[in-house]
Design brief:
heterodimer; A: about 250 residues; alpha/beta; six-stranded mixed β-sheet; about 40% helix; B: about 400 residues; mainly alpha; four-stranded mixed β-sheet
Chain lengths: ~250, ~400
């Protein structure tokens, strides 16, 4: 379960002064549900997700992840969260097995349980072939599989995906999407950020459109289609953010 | 603090670093090879060059002296000199290093000596040039001998004994035990080398574990784990310290082995010159108070901590490996300066200098290696360095908790 209440994040920039990256964002995501956070580059998706993963402290507002407050119980939150982003890379000089085991150890898994868990994940993700090879020699697909195994090693209740398909080839992107769906089917709470409209349409149970740091629209695909009178997600998105001109202005900022 | 997490992070960083070529080179290859290379490579070449220059007859030009055939003949007969005919300007010949020096014998030199009037022989040489210096020494010795002969002759002529001009002798006798001599000779150099190695050994791992991780995108992955950042910092800190101490130990070991092998090579082999050579080897390898070595190790520990924390803090601020390198490289000079000051003869350990980081270590090591133990200063230095290290480590933890540092765009 993810519950965010009025999450706000401001940064101080030498040239531009105080910047509000995220402003009063509130939403709820239940177990067995995928919440899609849709927004253009710089809309505040990554900042929101980093606050949920306790990598950043909210300036104001609160959020609870699997019942733990992000501001006061960071360690417990992270123990219940799997965070996968384009910016969460692998240790190139470690093998896939070492990489996964390392994060298992940091999550406090006992040796035997950890060994069994690594075997199970390698079975599920079909990783045995490259499990003992160093990550810097991996193809993109192998890297993604290893990253997924890393996020799942402690079997977290909540999964956070920050643009996980960014820059991936079609086949790898498809396998990621399939995996996200499996997470939902296993009853995990999933939040998924992207700027790819088709992924949101295919994958998400609830969609939140974020623009200029604010959540401008929220609902199921059907609700959003009814509200904006459009069938196509892209059209819905453009209308939700206030038209193309608003989108271009925001991109310039 | 969670020791399980600290050890997990440390062991992973150790494994990771041992697979990193740059860290391996700075931590193991360079410290193991640099001293033997310096001693056997550069040292051997240098001593050969000097020996050749010393054995070779000095090429000199004699100016004047036509009315002093005795002196000129003696110079020509001396195997140490090779007389060159002065074609062209002698100053140019000296400058162009075609000759080592020019000897100007004043007109009427021999006649004046007989008459007893004072004379001046001028040597035109090239200041600071090794071969010219060697030539000057040899020529000066030649003329000193000539002067002494002249004095003796004059005394005999007047029927006076030789000790009239030498009423007494001055003799030196060393009372310092050998380890004190050793401590003073290389006591300044050892801490200097250790301090620099301690720093350079920590440099690359510190950059790799912070800015390197940020650049490769693994820092965010690590921060996602349910580990307090203080444990991450301590794990990384221990790794950097390990590298620093490993660098230092390997250098000391390779230096020790090189000196031992070099010493036995010098003293063995040549039987005729054995006595002289053994003496030379002894001066290369002065004995050091072994307790002093332990003292140096004990005192270097908080400095290694200080360097590790400082380097981690600074390189953490950088976004990339290159940026971190540009912040850290100039620091070497900041470290070298106080370390070098410790080698200067005038600077002594006082309550004030005992508080200056690095300089205090350099000074106290010099004392310990020569068997002097000022416990109050040793305590003060150890304590103050521990405080500096703790402050640097606290700063590092603080930096790890700062979002604008960790996610600097």
């Amino acid at each position: 379960m993810i519950e965010a209440h009025n999450l706000t994040k401001t940064f101080r920039d030498k040239k531009r002064g105080v910047i509000t990256a995220v402003e009063n964002v509130s939403f709820t995501c239940r177990p067995g549900q995928i919440y899609g956070l849709l927004g253009a580059n710089g809309a505040g998706k990554t900042t929101t997700l980093r606050m949920l993963a306790t990598l950043l402290q909210p300036t104001s507002g609160t959020a609870t992840m699997a019942g733990h407050d992000v501001a006061t119980a960071g360690v417990q939150v992270r123990a219940n969260v799997g965070f996968l982003a384009a910016s969460t890379a692998l240790y190139g000089r470690l093998t896939a097995r070492e990489m996964i085991t390392y994060f298992g150890e940091l999550n406090g898994l006992a040796e035997d349980a950890l060994r069994a868990r690594v075997r199970q994940l390698a079975d599920e993700l079909d990783m045995h072939e490259f499990l003992d090879r160093r990550c810097d020699k991996f193809s993109t697909g192998m890297k993604q599989k290893t990253s997924i195994a890393r996020t799942l090693i402690h079997d977290p209740a909540v999964m956070i995906f920050d643009e996980p398909t960014l820059g991936l080839d079609v086949m790898t992107a498809r396998s990621i999407v399939k995996f996200v769906r499996e997470c939902r089917n296993r009853g995990k709470t999933v939040i998924y950020s992207t700027h790819v409209m088709s992924e949101v349409e295919k994958l998400c149970d609830v969609i939140g459109i974020i623009h200029g740091g604010k959540l401008v629209a929220e609902g199921t695909l059907a609700e959003l289609q009814a509200r904006f009178g459009e069938q196509d997600m892209e059209e819905i998105f453009v209308k939700a953010v206030g038209g193309e001109a608003a989108l271009i202005a925001a991109m310039k900022n | 603090m969670n020791w399980h997490h600290i050890v997990t992070v440390y062991l992973k960083e150790l494994r990771d670093s041992l697979r990193d070529r740059r860290t391996l080179i700075s931590m193991i290859v360079i410290p193991t090879l640099v001293m033997p290379l310096l001693m056997f490579g550069v040292g051997a070449v240098m001593s050969k060059v000097i020996k050749t220059a010393r054995d070779e007859a000095s090429a000199i030009v004699i100016l004047g002296g036509t009315d002093s055939p005795g002196v000129v003949a003696a110079l020509k007969a001396d195997k140490r000199f090779r007389i060159v005919a002065a074609d062209g300007d002698y100053r140019q010949l000296v400058s162009e290093k075609k000759i080592r020096l020019a000897v100007e014998i004043p007109a009427g030199f021999e006649a004046a000596l007989k008459a007893g009037s004072p004379q001046t022989v001028t040597l035109y040489h090239y200041e600071g040039e090794m071969k010219s210096g060697l030539g000057v020494t040899a020529v000066e010795r030649f003329f000193r001998d000539l002067r002494e002969q002249t004095i003796e002759q004059r005394l005999t002529d007047r029927g006076l004994p030789a000790d009239v001009v030498k009423p007494f002798e001055v003799k030196r006798q060393n009372v310092a035990p050998p380890e004190k001599v050793g401590g003073n000779l290389i006591g300044g150099l050892i801490p200097y080398i250790i301090i620099i190695l301690c720093f350079t050994g920590a440099m690359y791992p510190a950059i790799d574990l912070t800015a390197g991780e940020k650049e490769r995108g693994t820092m965010e992955t690590l921060l996602c784990s349910p580990v307090h950042r203080v444990n991450i910092v301590l794990g990384k800190f221990l790794m950097v310290m390990t590298a620093s101490i490993a660098t230092m130990c390997l250098t000391l070991l390779s230096t020790g082995v090189s000196v031992a092998i070099g010493g036995s090579m010098f003293s063995g082999g040549r039987t005729a010159a054995a006595a002289g050579a053994t003496k030379a080897a002894a001066s290369v390898m002065p004995s050091i108070d072994p307790l002093g070595i332990f003292g140096v190790f004990a005192m270097i520990a908080p400095v290694a901590m200080f360097f590790a924390a400082l380097l981690l803090t600074i390189s953490l601020f950088a976004k990339s490996y290159k940026e971190a390198q540009s912040y850290v490289s100039p620091l070497i000079i900041v470290v070298i300066m106080p370390a070098m000051m410790g080698m200067l003869p005038g600077i002594e350990l006082t309550a004030k200098t005992a508080l200056i980081p690095i300089l205090n270590l350099s000074l106290v090591c010099k004392e310990m290696l020569s068997g002097v133990w000022h416990w109050n200063y040793i305590g003060l230095i150890f304590g103050s360095t521990c405080v500096y290290a703790a402050v640097a480590l606290a700063l590092c933890v603080r930096m790890f908790n700062r979002e604008d540092v960790m996610f600097r765009a």
